[in-house]
Design goal:
By secondary structure, the chain is α/β, with parallel strands linked by helices. Helices cover about 30% and strands about 20% of the residues. It has 30 helices and 36 strands. About 55% of the residues are buried.
């Protein structure tokens, strides 16, 4: 059936009972278009004024959100935004002509005409500004066209998964190409509901049935789906398309709104609009602030909470609020004389050129090493080679290389070339690494063969460089355009590239992903320099020290500190694979004085200590500082570990990817502090300030920052070495930095009368009972003192505010089957939990093991445990989720 033969039907109201849709929002509006022909529209409007659209209806409106859907959705997409609109914010969500419940047309409506239509509608509705446009999918270009033409009314732009161009060198989305193919478009888009159904399938997670039915409601037959096919036909994929010139004109016109505040909310799993399109939008709208939802897809408005960030962002556009209650901490200005990150390496290469800088253990061959002079020369040569190859200042370079010589050389060469390194821990696994890289969107990727093979198969971004030597052209099979060795040789003898400045980005480091998708944390050079100096001061690190880094990221600190370093022979993705003999061999390789290992690594070191021979025990005797962090470290574990390194003082630094170090405590100080509600992590280090934001009854950190003893709240940190920002996570960054100069860590704890910090858990893991807030760590530590308990997790089950405390324990030996604990164990756990005024425990469950994070193998995933406990207590199967 041709478009001309399609039935013309006037706009109508949606049927009653659609999930989440308030009938009071619906309005039918007849509008005369620019061509003089009147058409009837269906609009959702949060404004309660008269339907005439007179200006009186918006007299009290501070800002109007003009929401435009794409294909094949309708204004229902914006229902949550309408429901949450605060006073002074009007939300107008339109059904484009031919779509939703607006008028069905006799002819297609091309791109430029739809922009005209939208302008005529807003005039009729009395929308005269200030306006924030909000759009999704093909509604993006249409709303941007309106924005360009109404620049004087425009207060802001919000975009969700959309595009205004198909960047050169990238094919059009496969799904669009398939649907546009001859013979399929009419079948998939019009004669059947396949295109509608296929779009809904893209949701993550699957949409509830009632929501799917609501999205399908306007498109019940072919006549009502006609515009869906017209929309797909109107996507200009080539120069010969009728709308191509109009889209190109819009691309040029975006320069007129490039200075307008813009928020981009992006679903990272979208197969239609990918991160290539996101990068293109950021280039055209340089003021854009981005929040990328790693686990959301094309229907990001459904997959994630976009309502909260939109309204928060719109609120920030308003008149300046009163001065924040907490000013930036006094005395926190960074007054250090600047020493670049590579200055320690340069100094060591001059003062001790023949001293070993990096030792590489493990693998099939003998140990490899580089002296400081060799390493410094390699860094300069590789930096010059990278620049000549095309690595530009500010380019992101992802590093998928295990700890060792290649990784150290690549990191420092990238810094010396003013590039930004992207470091995603191998412990994230292929899926987690892929998410991290797609989020960071590096221009270049340096990896070992296995990593490059995965990158090619999984289409990770970045121009590939093979770490190591070229082997019979194998790098080309992996998609690598060059190798580190080739680039290093090509840069030999070239002058060093211009150095980066202190404000230039130095690194994007990813968190462990223990409480959700790993977050990218951006550091500038000055912040990493401050971190290096804080570590050196905290542990009196000098030229005579040598480091064993059994926690892989710390292997990179050696050259910055100007000291030798080595990673033990272990699987860096599994800390528990470190043995006592491997640790001793690493210590012997550099005569180490410093050892950093995660608690999980120390557990196995202690367990295999009997395998040490006399020489290995003697080598361990030279260690003066033993550091362990990443999760609570029991004093009993530190005592057993120090028995193997009798000359060492045991420390547990407290910090996180966003701020390290924050505080520090020795084993002796842990024992002196005694038991308490949480883990004592010591006093803040010099140059670090700590405060807490008190909690309300539902566990939200809403109070003004305080350092009062005994007040439990979210731990907040200020220091010169705190991260600069989260990468493409605008909403997360806004929350974490809401007090100027402070980082809200997401950890919960309190300061005691001696100024010591106690960590009680994570903000996300607080239990909100009818009697008040309960934090988990103190309870867990008391329960873990019981015989037969290896690990414990205290979680909340039930609605917020009336949750019940449930203890889930991993037993030693492991329980044969998960489920309810024995009466004897239940009684013991309840007694232990109730000590020191602890809460009543509703139930005690057992599992053979508890889920922990991959990086440290120590942090319990309490969210997973809580979901499992809820399932079991509701009568579900006790098998692992």
């Amino acid at each position: 059936m041709s478009a001309a033969a399609a039935d013309v039907a006037a706009a109508r109201l949606p049927p009653p009972g659609l999930a989440g849709l308030d009938p009071a929002w619906s309005r039918l509006v007849t509008v005369a278009g620019p061509d003089g022909v009147a058409h009837s529209w269906h609009v959702l409007d949060s404004d309660a004024g008269p339907s005439s659209g007179s200006s009186d209806a918006t007299a009290e409106t501070r800002v109007t959100l003009l929401c435009v859907h794409g294909n094949p959705t309708w204004s229902y997409l914006w229902r949550r935004l309408l429901a949450a609109a605060p006073p002074g914010v009007r939300v107008v969500a339109v059904d484009q002509l031919g779509m939703g419940f607006s008028e069905r047309l006799a002819a297609p409506r091309p791109f430029a005409q739809r922009i005209d239509d939208l302008g005529a509608l807003t005039d009729a509705l009395g929308v005269h500004g200030p306006v924030v446009t909000v759009a999704h999918d093909w509604g993006g270009p249409i709303s941007l066209g309106w924005a360009v033409r109404h620049r004087d009314q425009l207060a802001g732009i919000v975009l969700t998964n959309t595009a205004v161009d198909q960047p050169a060198g990238t094919p059009a989305p496969a799904l669009i190409r398939i649907v546009r193919s001859r013979g399929l478009l009419e079948l998939l888009c019009v004669r059947t509901s396949a295109f509608v159904d296929g779009t809904l399938v893209l949701a993550h997670p699957q949409l509830p049935g009632a929501v799917r039915r609501a999205f399908r409601a306007p498109y019940g037959d072919a006549a009502r789906r006609r515009a869906i096919g017209d929309f797909v036909r109107d996507i200009p994929l080539d120069l010969g398309h009728a709308s191509w010139s109009d889209l190109v004109r819009l691309q040029a016109d975006l320069a007129t709104v490039a200075d307008v505040p813009t928020l981009v909310l992006w679903g990272g799993l979208d197969p239609v609009f990918t991160d290539v399109h996101l990068a293109d939008l950021r280039r055209r709208l340089p003021r854009a602030q981005v929040h990328r939802f790693a686990t959301a897809g094309h229907l990001v408005v459904e997959d994630a909470d976009v309502t909260t960030p939109v309204l928060d962002w719109v609120g920030d556009l308003g008149p300046p609020a009163e001065a924040p209650p907490t000013a930036p901490p006094a005395g926190m200005a960074d007054t250090r004389a600047r020493r670049p990150l590579w200055s320690g390496l340069e100094q060591a290469s001059e003062e001790a050129p023949d001293q070993v800088a990096v030792v590489e253990l493990g693998g099939d061959g003998p140990p490899r090493s580089r002296t400081f002079a060799e390493l410094d020369a390699d860094v300069l040569d590789l930096a010059a080679g990278l620049v000549a190859w095309g690595v530009a200042p500010g380019d992101r370079v992802a590093l998928l290389v295990p700890p060792g010589i290649d990784l150290v050389t690549a990191v420092y060469a990238c810094w010396r070339a003013a590039a930004t390194v992207v470091v995603a821990d191998a412990g994230l696994g292929p899926r987690g690494i892929g998410r991290a890289l797609r989020s960071a969107d590096p221009a270049h990727l340096i990896g070992i063969p296995r990593a490059l093979a995965a990158a090619r198969a999984l289409r990770w971004p970045g121009r590939a460089i093979l770490a190591g030597a070229r082997r019979n052209g194998a790098h080309r099979l992996l998609g690598a355009a060059s190798t580190l060795d080739e680039l290093r040789r090509s840069g030999a003898g070239c002058p060093p590239p211009p150095a980066p400045g202190p404000e230039d980005d130095a690194a994007v480091l990813f968190t462990s992903g223990a409480t959700g998708p790993a977050k990218g944390v951006v550091y500038r050079h000055r912040q990493l320099e401050a971190q290096r100096d804080a570590l050196a001061a905290a542990y009196a690190i000098g030229p005579s020290d040598r480091l064993v880094a059994a926690f892989a990221p710390f292997a990179l600190y050696g050259p910055a500190l100007g000291i030798p370093s080595v990673v033990p022979d272990m699987d860096v993705t599994a800390p528990g694979t470190l043995t006592a003999t491997a640790l001793a061999d690493a210590v012997s390789a550099v005569d180490a004085t410093l050892v950093f290992a995660s608690p999980a690594a120390l557990v196995n070191v202690v367990a295999t200590g009997s395998e040490l021979d006399g020489g290995q025990r003697q080598a361990l005797g030279g260690v003066r500082v033993l550091l362990s962090a990443g999760a609570p470290v029991p004093a009993s574990l530190l005592r057993r570990a120090t028995a193997l390194v009798p000359g060492a003082e045991a420390h547990t630094p407290y910090g996180m990817t966003e701020a390290l170090p924050v505080a520090d405590i020795t084993l002796a100080a842990i024992e002196a502090a005694g038991p308490g509600n949480g883990v004592c992590v010591g006093r803040p280090l010099p140059g670090v300030q700590v405060a807490v934001s008190p909690l309300d009854d539902l566990g939200a950190a809403v109070g003004a920052l305080t350092s009062d003893a005994g007040t439990t709240g979210e731990i907040c940190v200020a220091a010169a070495h705190v991260k600069d920002r989260y990468d493409k996570l605008w909403a997360t960054e806004r929350t974490s930095s809401r007090d100027p100069g402070w980082h809200h860590t997401g950890d919960v704890g309190h300061l005691d009368d001696h100024g010591r910090l106690w960590v009680e858990g994570r903000l996300a893991h607080i239990i909100t009972t009818a009697g008040g807030v309960v934090t988990p760590v103190g309870i867990e530590l008391r329960v873990q003192q019981l015989d037969g308990v290896a690990l414990a997790a205290a979680v909340g089950v039930g609605p917020a505010g009336t949750q019940q405390v449930v203890l889930v324990v991993a037993t030693d030996p492991p329980a044969s089957r998960p489920g309810a604990a024995s009466p004897t164990l239940t009684a013991a756990v309840r007694t232990a939990a109730a000590l020191a005024g602890g809460p009543d425990v509703a139930a005690v469950l057992v599992r053979p093991a508890l889920p922990v994070d991959l990086r440290h193998a120590s942090k319990v995933d309490r969210a997973d445990v809580a979901a499992w406990a809820t399932q079991v207590l509701a009568g579900g199967r006790a098998g692992r989720r």
